[in-house]
Amino acid sequence: MRLVRMLVPVVFFLTQSPLAYSSTGGAISPLQVIVSYLKEEMKGQPQSHGLMKVTRAAVFPGNLIRAALVSAPFNTTSGAPKIDVADLWERGIDLATQRTASYKAAQHHELLLTGSFCCIIGALLSLALFRVHVLLLFGVAMLGSFFGLNGLTPTVQYALCIALPVWQMTSSSSSKQGPVNPKLAGGHKAKTPAGKAD
Fold this sequence. Notes:
- The structure is a single chain.
- It contains 8 helices and 3 strands, in the order H-E-E-H-H-H-H-H-H-E-H.
- The chain has helices at residues 2-14, 30-41, 50-69, 85-90, 92-97, 109-129, 134-149, 156-177, and strands at 20-21, 27-28, 153-154.
- A 3-stranded antiparallel β-sheet has the order 2-1-3.
- The relative contact order is 0.15.
């Protein structure tokens, strides 16, 4: 169960699952926010650039899932296209950032970018260390502040990204305390002096 609680945020982030929606219907995903930032930084770089390959690999799972849902055989509509894995890889960065324009003009954009980085790094560190890392909590808190300041609607996925780490921290704290010693709690009986009847 603990492993599941550690994995859920990582799965949400890697699959580009939305944590909030804008009034226009635009979805916000931490990984897409980071990739949008890196895309601007990598302008003019060759396709073989190392950072570009890593970025493509990071967005590939989410792009593949979205493509599979609208392609055959999952899409039973007549004439539904088949998945083109090579095309998904080549256009991976563009596909992952095509929905990021909806919040480009949002206020306090630094909260969104910093919170997204903290969420991704914190979730990976939490999984590696097998305990909730403080960066994950900072990231979720910053994203929540950004959502509130811009009137965005959080999703169930965002609620789980808060609830599961807090639940894990509470469970770990309770297990470390262990059972209460009745003697320390004052629950032991007073000894009867020797030679005297009760």
